Amino acid sequence: MENRYFKTTRKGLVGNGTLQELAKWIERFVNVLFPENGIEYWSSRTLAEKENWTLDKRPVAHIACYVTEGHSEGRMIRLMLFMRDGGYIEMPWAKTFGSWDESWDIAKAVSNALESIIIWGDVPLLVEMADLMPRSHNWSRETSLKYPIMIHADKGTLSVMAPDSNLLAKYDFGVEDRLAKACVRAHINDWKTVIGNMRGAYAIIVVNQEMDAPEELLK
After folding, report:
1. Which parts of 65-174 fold into alpha helices (H)?
2. Where would I find the H helices in 73-158?
3. CA separation for the pair 122, 14 (Å, rounded)
4. For residues 34 and 102, is the Cβ–Cβ distance under 8 A?
5. What is the dihedral of CA 76, 26, 80, 107, to 10 degrees?
6. CB-CB contact of 63 with 80 (8 Å)
7. For position 176, what pLDDT does the model report?
8. Rounded to an integer, what is the distance from CA 199 to the centroid of its chain?
9. Quick one: which of 5, 81, 141, 153 is 20 to 30 A from 25 by CA?
10. Of 144, 187, 175, 139, which is closest to residue 9 (Cα–Cα)?
11. CB atoms within 10 A of CB 179
12. Local structure of 58: helix, strand or coil
């Protein structure tokens, strides 16, 4: 599938695979991509009767993420899972005072992520990358780093280094793998997104000549 908002994924589950864990992940995913979003809160009652529910026994037919006007003011970003048996699950919705365009962009990003996770079993890595960034508090959307983060890449490996030479992440995609270069480029793209959105620090890309990276990744 075409992922507009992220380029890297891993196979597996979000947390323990429950809807509650997925809901928590969605909120964090939105904050990584839209750190200055106008969301006031996420509802907490929609999954109250579905504690520890997973989707392994109720296959999802399709996903709906859309924006409606709020009951009194602002807007609501709604997330629905429609099941093959004709039922549906309402995921926690967001109350937002963000613009119409921002609200729909968030809905589209969440739709893209949920389709990747639920339909294809591919979890976007943006949230896990953001978790590796130092911050003053766990809830902070900004990194505490104020100096450049070095991203070293060649045709099969990638390393992400903090200013104090602390290794934040290292990937080895196998030099002989024909998809290795594409994986390196994808990880550079998502790390640039995370570092830029968490503000303070910025990325410096160092690419081996064998990598032959596109010009836009070096900016």
Report:
1. 100-114, 126-131
2. 100-114, 126-131
3. 10
4. yes
5. 50
6. yes
7. 67
8. 16
9. 153
10. 187
11. 10
12. coil
Stated pTM of the model: 0.90
Q: pLDDT in tens for each of the 219 residues of the chain?
A: 567 899 999 999 999 999 999 999 999 999 999 999 999 999 987 887 777 888 876 789 999 999 999 878 899 999 999 999 889 999 999 999 999 999 999 999 999 999 999 999 999 999 999 999 999 888 899 999 888 999 999 888 999 999 887 999 999 998 767 789 899 999 999 999 999 999 987 889 998 755 554 444 444
Element (H, E) at 150: strand 149-153
Cα separations in angstroms, 34 against 7, 96, 98, 141 = 16, 12, 11, 10
CA distances from 200 to 142, 156, 219 (A): 7, 29, 17
Burial of 211 (0-12, 13-18, 19+ CB in 10 A): buried
Q: Which of 93, 101, 38, 45 is nearest to 65 (CA)?
A: 93
Beta carbons within 8 Å of 3's beta carbon, 6+ residues apart: 9, 112, 116, 124
Output the six-digit token pair for 210: 């064998």
In Å, what is the CA distance from 131 to each residue of 29, 32, 64, 85, 198?
11, 10, 28, 37, 11
